[in-house]
């Protein structure tokens, strides 16, 4: 079965970029020890340095749902949200292709 991916577009308030990266990194450290999946990737937009994108590959949708429902995630997002101008999240299915 193909992996489930999550993708986030995090638009951070100007001046809060470093604090956001530290908070996101702390969440990832804790989550990696508790939830099955590949380590996520954090990317920063070159043209808009306050826009970050995250990508994570998960073993199943059940793991994604458990992570999002966890106290760890809820607490971390609660700390991060005041730093944000906006957040878009996506849950994606990997597509098998001939190649």
Features of the shown structure:
99 residues; 4-stranded antiparallel beta sheet; 4 strands
Account of the protein in words:
With 99 residues, the protein is α+β, with helices and mostly antiparallel strands. The chain has a single domain (4-93), classed as Alpha-Beta Plaits (2-Layer Sandwich). Helices cover 37% and strands 31% of the residues. The protein contains three helices and four strands. It has a four-stranded antiparallel sheet. Strand 2 (41-44) and strand 3 (51-58) form a beta hairpin. The chain starts with a strand and ends in a 6-residue tail after the last strand.
Task: Annotate the secondary structure layout.
Blueprint: E1 4-12, H1 17-34, E2 41-44, E3 51-58, H2 61-69, H3 71-80, E4 84-93
Antiparallel strand pairs: 1-3, 1-4, 2-3
Helix pairs in contact: 1-3
């Amino acid at each position: 079965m193909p992996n489930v991916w999550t993708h986030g577009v995090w638009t951070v308030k100007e001046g809060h970029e470093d604090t956001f990266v530290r908070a996101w990194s702390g969440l990832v450290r804790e989550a990696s020890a508790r939830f099955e999946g590949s380590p996520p990737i954090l990317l920063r937009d070159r043209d808009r340095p306050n826009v970050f994108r995250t990508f994570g590959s998960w073993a199943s949708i059940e793991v994604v749902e458990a992570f999002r429902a966890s106290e760890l995630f809820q607490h971390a997002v609660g700390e991060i949200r005041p730093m944000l101008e906006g957040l878009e999240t996506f849950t994606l299915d990997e597509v098998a292709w001939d190649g």
